[in-house]
Amino acid sequence: MIRENTREILKHISGDRAFDTVAEISTYHRIQASTGYRAAAKHVKEKLDRMGLGGKVLSFEAKEGGFWGTYPSFAEWDIKGAWCDLVYPYEERLADFDACAISVIQKSAPCDFSKEPVPVVFLDKGGDEKAYKNLDLEGKIVFYQGDVNDIFEWAVERRGAVGIITDFVLSAPFVRDRHDQSDTRRYTSYWWKPGQKKAFGFVLTPRQGDRFAALCRELAAKKDCPKVCCKVDSSIYDGFIEDVEAFIPGETDEEILLTAHLCHPRSSANDNASGCAAVIEAMNTIKTLVDSGKLAPLKRGIRMLLIPEFSGTYAYLDKYPKKAKKIKAAFNLDMVGARQTAGYGPITITDLPLAMPSFVGDMAAVVLDEIKHQVRGMGAEAYCPMFNSHQTGFSGGSDHMIWSDPATGVPCLMLGQWPDRYYHTSTDTLDKVDPFILSRSAALAAAYAYSLANLEQSDVSVLMDTALARTADYIKELKTQLAKGTVEEAFYPRRIEAYTNFRCAAIESFKEWDLCGAEDKDGFYKKLEDEKLRVRGLVKLLAGFDPVSRPVKSPVTRRQKEKYSLVIERTEKTPFQIRKPRAVYPDEIQERINFFTKNYAPKLGPALTAIGYYFDGKRTTAEAARLLSYETGRYNPAAVDEYARILVMLGYAKVVSE
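Predicted structure:
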């Protein structure tokens, strides 16, 4: 019934309704832990109430020095206005919060230099402090064309600068460079550590920045500098963050989750008012169709959770750990509605990490395939999709990485769009959003959630056939990467082994969904075992070996096996994001974290996201490093062992043996 239900949902999904919701949400300045975000949450709650979905706003304490599980908390921030004017050698408004909310560095501390011009010092020699020997910054504003994180510690905390002006933008090959963004401002924010000296800041466009840099150089030649007047009317204090929740009950207490982050600056439309709008539209459509009898009643409930990115999920799991145990699967929607003719990539399903085996990625693939059967092609039985789509392997970057942690135990996909020319900029505006793309994303989310909520044994065959086809596609793509040299030859068989094991475990996961009675249990389980043999046979045919009967040689040497014998059991069930340590830890721990992020994190690259997924209380760090490398192609047992020891020092894990 998966395809039939998807077609029924497609008839009733409205991209125009979802577009209106994007328009409403994007008018709010939705910075995490702020009055603007809270107003947006209230607005969404009231909208859900009008739909009969019974929205709830859940509040969680937000303060410096606190934690939501493993995630450092932060204070609330409120801003009423801000501006920055060049007053010497001529007058020009550089930034105005009312005109463009992103023209202020978010979470800026208050300041009032409205009547007292402040000198601006141009840091034009890069971000290394050594390049600015004897440069006096006390009480001045610095202008820097790079990432403000490069200079904040030494320019503000050590040398006394009071604020920062920047025109920095992110570039991505073939997507956007500085010239593509001449008149846009980058979403920039401070993330304060407890007790950290605070500052304010403003963001210019690259066009403004280049002119301002030329002015700075011109005046510097005369031993002079520009001066600005500015004001930031803001406050930082202990407060709250909010999640918005709605629930459509089913016959059992099991649930499927649809989630999206509600945060980001005013005007931010695709990121991520679009994800929130698509989830709301999906929930509304499911409820309407079930209530009208056009879809069968739900066996499992469907929950909606709109959150401040990362923090809202960590806070929810920290406060309601029992709720996660009822969630069978999830879908995270993050940037899902942009026009594909305007610098945006395909609708992309990001799959599960191999450490979290499940068939839910195949469910999303079946639903997407049905949605793509849109317009008849040239042949009698051919169809042509009217949008671009893609399904790819696991990567982090949003809340699905928290749910899909095996310790959390909820297989969660992500739906997004990449590449994205306007990501985290002031030009991520409503005109970039397409009601049609929104409707496809909302339909995909709705059909995925409903099909899992009402999963039946009769659905298993089509899911297993899809899984088999995707296995063939995976091996084909891996061979292509091997030929291009983007996958090392030594890792090719290891990747095959890891993926085959994932596929067999995903077949096994059907047993967790109560799809058969006692009378047909043996027959159903035999069908699953037969399917594992079919997968292994396909792998042997395409890859030339069966990794289940003939595992590949481990990269772990005898010496490494002895050296990295630590076994840990995680006591906190959410991942620790070591590159976001916005907490103040004891010196010994902080030194270990700093060493790790400087020396190991760059070598691990994307493998860093999944590094904790393989600590299960039984594996040694050498074994965890082996499995991580099979998934990611990055083998570094020393890094994995050090990460495990940091978790123990933080109290997020305990030693089982060594």
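Summary: The CA atoms of residues 165 and 600 lie 32 Å apart.
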